[in-house]
Amino acid sequence: MLVPLYEAVYARLEIGTGTRLLGVGCGSGLALLMAAARGADVTGVEPDERRLALARERLLPGPRTRPARPRPAPARLVRGGPEAVGGTGRGAAPFNTVTVFGPAGADVLGAAAALAEPGSPVILAGWGPPERCATTRVLRTAAPSATVSPAAGRDGLEELARRAGLRPDGSGRVACPFAYPDMDSAVRGLVSTGLPDAPDGPADPDVVAKDLTEALHPFRRPDGSVRMDNVFRYLIART
């Protein structure tokens, strides 16, 4: 669902050969895969072992893999946060681009920026204005106790960057519709993100499914598909 966001950022920064990219909170590795396909040397850090396992499947060739054509260099995938990258033996300031496409605190951003060369871009991203993000409205209706990342707003990303010691240097907005072929796929897709979970742990799956189905009803189309229009905002900051 966030492919348009990744594409817009990579095109603007001209990600490609010569890019040494650190993806903080890389999740299941899709954004890293897209950067590697452009020729970038990518490293991902992710605290969730389940998502990191999916990233390994996407980015690391298996022992019997024999590709028919040259493929990008394998990614470096590390469990944890930016501080865990030191275990890769790559030395000081190994990166010239940092992406943080998910929620992160100023301390995490600061740790990631410390691994990048001076002047390198650090990309932050988040939900756009609430009135333009149908998915956040669905989540807040279906799971009011869940922790839904706040909208990036007018200055939210800038304030976060400054707290991390970074200098804002441009921003943009990208339409990222969440579209599913049917209601069941929409419910499973939203549950898989972990967003409907409460702060103290996963909620009852049956209750979550029921509440999501009700909240998604206004976004169901005559053909049975479900579509929620969203806008994401990104900020380019500099170390």
TrEMBL record:
Its EC number is 2.1.-.-. Residues 61-89 are annotated as: Disordered. It holds the Pfam family Methyltransf_11. Residues 22-59 form the Methyltransferase type domain. GO terms for molecular function: methyltransferase activity. It is an enzyme of class 2 (transferase). Keywords: Methyltransferase, Transferase. GO terms for biological process: methylation. The keyword Transmembrane helix does not apply. SUPFAM superfamilies: S-adenosyl-L-methionine-dependent methyltransferases. This is Class I SAM-dependent methyltransferase. It comes from Streptantibioticus silvisoli.
